[in-house]
Amino acid sequence: MASVDTSLTSTFGSAVVLLQANLGIGLVLGALGVAVSSSHEVRSQLEGKPWEATLRSAAKAVSPAPLLIAYALVQVRAAPADMLASTGLLVSGASVFLSTFLAILGPVLGARFATASRVLHVIRAFGQMLMVFGRVPSGVELVCASLFIRAALAARSASAVSCALSLGSDAAEDVEQVVAMAPLIGGIALLDNMAWGPSGIMAVPFQASLLCTVLLGLVVAVRFGMGGSVKSAGRHAMDVQFEDGLFEGIRSKLVALIFVVLAFSVCRVFVGTFGIQVSTSSISIAWGDLLTASAAKVALLIVGTYIVSFVSAGPVDETEEETDGMPTINGMEVANGVSMTHGKGLGMLDYMKAVVAPAEVLVLALIAAQMGSQQETSFGALPFKYGFILAALGVGLQIVSLLAFATANAGKKGAEPCFDTTGTIQWAAEDGTLMFGLRSLTLLCLECGLLLGCLGLGATPMVVGFVTATGALFVLSPTEARQTGIEVAKLILGSCMGGVEALIEQQRAAQEAAAARRAAAVARTLEAEAEKSEKVGKAVSKQASTATKRKGKEVGSPQQPSQADELRCRPHPLRRLGAVKDNSPTSNSSFEP
Q1: Helix (H) or strand (E) holding 151
Q2: Contact status, residue 228 vs residue 234, Cβ threshold 8 Å
Q3: Which residue, 156, 289, 439, 505, has fewest beta-carbon neighbours within 10 Å?
Q4: pTM
């Protein structure tokens, strides 16, 4: 068992390193793009330098990594220890790393390294063919996904050898539209296995990976076996076309069936990942594992965009000119087989496809983080494990920004969104602080999420790889390139520190303003209470004064005699006439008849 665990860890470690390299290139490309667009000093330092072309060539060199990552994760999930697969993954990964390093170093030195690139292509093809003959995993969904991934590896190996030998074949372009779907379909198969466990033989007709393998075989048979013409319309994923009417009819129905099965697979993953409990008083939704749920949502976003693009795609206009190579849409390169090679006018669906296409690697990153969380129990690494969820939120905010732009500019002719290197819309100043805040939040989620997620997968290989690659580039670069790199690094670090200080100052000012508002509210309350107390005191004093005055009047005034006293003191009428004798002792008079 120890040897099995070691081999699985080695395969998983290779997948992690490939993920960090792929996402790291995107992280650096996005950070430099944001720095150039927001800082005049950085823009002036890099003016006239091929920095963007350098990073884009590096991104192109690392593009084979997602297919290798999907293969490694499928093997780790359900395949036994396999030295052949581990060796092939190690050889292919090393060739991808060296190709990426040369892609960066070449423009810096002004060299092409053509011979070294051809040798690395052959080495990568050899490693991928070793992976093709590795052990097959268990479970119907993973077996079918592994079959499609291995077919894609074989197709890319043939393309790499053809490129190394300068045979001038366009076979890679013929099959790339189909092969590019392999990482996404492998990720959906992994999510299905996580949600439901290994499937039985009855699930074979519902495997999109098996249908994609049939489509890939059809393309190869028509292109090489029958000498037919295969072209890519580029309106949606897997949009290849045959000139032969019979095979074109088969292809169109097969592609439609693939998208139907993909929709069913994603719905099945959601049912297995999210639980809904309905009662008479409430409705509750159980998310299950947070990383798996986030991966399912990103997969739904990608598949939904592809399905809408497929449904809305019309017939190809043969009068429109084709573009050569992989086009760039306002600073954002369209990759992963969704390039729009037909049509001069691009719609919102084309932009949405370009935004969600790189998110296929994010699905694999979330799955790898979930697998790593089962092996890593360190509490300190827990916050980093969920960093990719922030990046997934950033992708969602990119779509929200694009929809907001489409809504705000509905009916306006010539309104075209402008993107940066991360695929985020660059809002104009007149769009208001709300849109600027949405863009800032999107970039923060993307960049911080990718950085934290890569650190969560393993800080040691990421730091060692970054320091080694940066140190080698610094040593091999000319003096001018070194000085430019140092100045740009200082400006970016200074900008970051200044941004942090500004944020701290803003928070401190906000806290002081809140404290001032609270103090003013307390002062107003106390003042109101004092005024109320003063009014009550005046009223009480007035009442007391009135009562005192009333009492003083009652004490100082003579008492009025009552009616009985007045009658008693009044002399009798007969007495006044002398008819009544006064019997009082003081009277000396007598009555004589």
Answers
A1: helix 140-164
A2: no
A3: 505
A4: 0.79
